[in-house]
Structure prediction request, 300 residues.
Amino acid sequence: MGNGTLYIRSRRLEETADHVSRLSIRLMLNGRQWYKVGGADRTVHPDNFLVIDQGQHYRTAFESEAGAEMLMVGFRPGLAAEVRRNLMTPTEQLMDDPTPTDVPIAFFEQTYPMDPEVRSLFARLHGLVRADPTVRQEVDVDLIHDRLMERLVMLQFGLLERTEQLSAMKRSTRIELWRRLNVARDLAESCPDRPLTVPDLANAACLSEHHFKRSFRAAFGIPPHAFLRQVRMQRAHVLLAQGRHLVTEVAAAVGYFDPSAFGRSYRRHFGRSPSEDLCDRFIGHGNTLPGPFLELARSA
Prediction:
């Protein structure tokens, strides 16, 4: 089984049956895609990408009024170990022993913040899947796949280095702690509509609240409560930019039952009110605000 690229463009993908993945990278060019991987919820959107390891079980679905585009690259078994060895072994040794048996890499099954090189390589693949077949035949697609794997291996070793900063004695304990923290982080990103609390995230990570808060900040450079607010505000900003929802609807969609509290949080985060952003969305395009939007803008 070789490397391969899968492209899906659709308004809706019904929740799939349980699948067993090969090592793959998955991203959304637009829209949001839900995954259940190893019992944990993950959400993929244009500002991140998901890695699913070889042999991992997953389910997935998405829905988008405008139509969503998903790209996935699946890698042939053994490629990751080959790439790691080629990146880390002196040329003389590679020449003397070109086909050793390498221990497979165990990848962190998590979402990664979007990396500029990963974005660039997927943009090339996106151009190719929509290009004329004669154009695709002239491009070495496998070279793009190899470069993606090289970048993924380098990012993986960067994550391994970051686990060293976590306060645990054994390396295996640090890696397990990192995995649990990412379960909590991905839960927060997957559920901006739920009023999740820090204790909820600590429970998802199977850690005491105090230990979780200290470890989360050490790992990601931000307290978990601030991360929860950041996720909600970013989602709210996206919904307001679409111009299809009242401020009260956006507030409810990101877990705020009190629109006033939502407005205060939004202003603290962005330096302007949600109604100002909503007005800019319409007025900036030469439009007139619909009645309900106008009334809400006046009162906000």
Q: What stands out?
A: Residues 202 and 211 are 8 Å apart (CA to CA). Residues 227-299 form a domain with the Arc Repressor Mutant, subunit A fold (CATH 1.10.10.60). The two ends are 58 Å apart (CA to CA).
